[in-house]
Write a structure and sequence with these properties.
This protein is an alpha+beta fold. It contains twelve helices and five strands. The protein has a five-stranded mixed beta sheet with strand order 1-2-3-5-4, with helices on one face. The radius of gyration is 32 Å and the shape is elongated. About 25% of the residues are buried.
């Protein structure tokens, strides 16, 4: 009986919240009528996008409520409403997600009242099920109806709020457009960085090297000792130029990734980070390697995270976890520093997000004040 009461109480909470939302949706009819009148008259046409955004918030709250009961997330698929009024209006009206939300809201006006059935079920359930369980030792009969009622309400809401294939496709196209723009921006920034490194580093050293060799040629006959000194300096500058070029090449695609794979490259990176880094791998050495683009993105994410940890965290320890999953590669970098990461303060995390988004991956940063800072990246790939 105790378990039955707990389930019925949980169902009652869900039905109560659903009833409150249904009552609010009845009141929302006034807003819909005002927006419709304004759209027809043309005077309040600006109300239409705002009303659509408000409907999205209501539908989003209902999705979260339904997901908390069923344990299954209901995806959202909306196009971004922004720009001038004409563009906002066209997007709000033409978005397939708007039709889905309006269809759910219209149906909710009809089946939302079912939630009030919980009111007579409780006294009847306590009386009938109390007798059946307490005196006759039989299964509860009335109180489980509350759970079934909550299941019915949630199943109808989930079916109505689930985005259509057209809405999912439109949302996916918008997402890919944004990630493509970010990838192009990241590519341009990378090219400018390489050009800057070559111009300020290797090119300057090679110019100085050429000048010293020229001076050594002129001084060779008159002052062999000075010429040898110039040639020695030229050799040093040649070695420095080679070091600069290796640094630029590592910035494009580290050769160690090709030679030793991701695990070996990450261990070498950890060894040269200046921190005490623990590297753990989960099924990574087993089976084939990830695609080169995925390994490169994971390597640069870890390199950026370790650089930030060494500069800003105040901690001398970090942990790296590389995990192979059925659908991709997971990367987790944790440091025990001061936390409080501000993503708007620099371009490191933004570049990390752009690089990962170009591969359709995700980045999650958790950094409360006082630490720790945890960066988790999921990179999809086929093994």
């Amino acid at each position: 009986m105790r378990a039955t009461l707990r389930q019925a109480a949980r169902a009652t909470v869900h039905l109560f919240l659903a009833a409150a939302m249904a009552f609010g949706s009845y009141l929302f009819i006034t807003v819909l009528l005002i927006a419709a009148t304004g759209a027809v008259s043309g005077v309040g046409i600006w109300l239409v996008p705002e009303t659509v955004l408000l409907i999205r918030r209501i539908a989003g709250a209902k999705r979260r409520l339904t997901a908390s009961w069923t344990g299954r997330e209901i995806p959202e698929a909306y196009r971004t409403v922004g720009g001038p009024l004409r563009e906002r209006l066209r997007t709000a009206v033409g978005d397939p997600g708007t039709l889905t939300d309006l269809r759910w809201m219209g149906a909710y006006y009809a089946y939302g009242w079912l939630t009030v059935l919980m009111l007579p079920l409780w006294p009847a359930g306590l009386l009938v099920d109390g007798v059946r369980r307490g005196l006759l030792g039989r299964q509860a009969l009335v109180l489980p109806l509350l759970v079934r009622l909550a299941d019915l309400e949630a199943s109808w809401s989930a079916a109505l709020l689930r985005p259509s294939p057209k809405a999912l496709l439109a949302s996916r196209v918008e997402q890919l457009t944004a990630t493509r723009a970010d990838a192009v921006a990241a590519h341009g920034a990378e090219l400018r960085r390489i050009e800057r490194d070559l111009h300020d580093g290797a090119q300057a050293r090679l110019v100085a090297l050429s000048m010293r060799i020229g001076l050594a040629q002129r001084a060779y006959a008159a002052d062999p000792d000075a010429a040898r000194k110039l040639l020695s300096d030229a050799q040093d500058q040649a070695e420095e130029a080679l070091t600069e070029l290796r640094h630029v090449v590592r910035g494009i695609h580290p050769p160690i990734l090709t030679d030793r794979g991701l695990e070996g490259a990450v261990r070498a990176l950890a060894g040269g980070s200046g921190l005490l880094v623990t590297v753990r791998t989960d099924r990574l050495p087993d089976g084939p390697r990830a695609p080169a683009a995925v390994e490169s993105a994971a390597y640069f994410v870890i390199a950026e995270a370790l650089t930030n940890a060494a500069k800003h965290s105040g901690s001398d320890r970090a942990e790296i976890v590389l995990a192979r999953s059925r659908t991709g590669l997971g990367v987790r970098v944790r440091d025990e520093g001061c936390g409080g990461v501000d993503e708007s303060a620099g371009s490191g995390l933004l570049g990390m997000r752009r690089r990962v988004a170009a591969l359709d991956g995700t980045v999650r940063v958790t950094s409360p004040v006082g630490g720790p800072t945890v960066i988790e990246v999921e990179l999809p790939c086929v093994w």
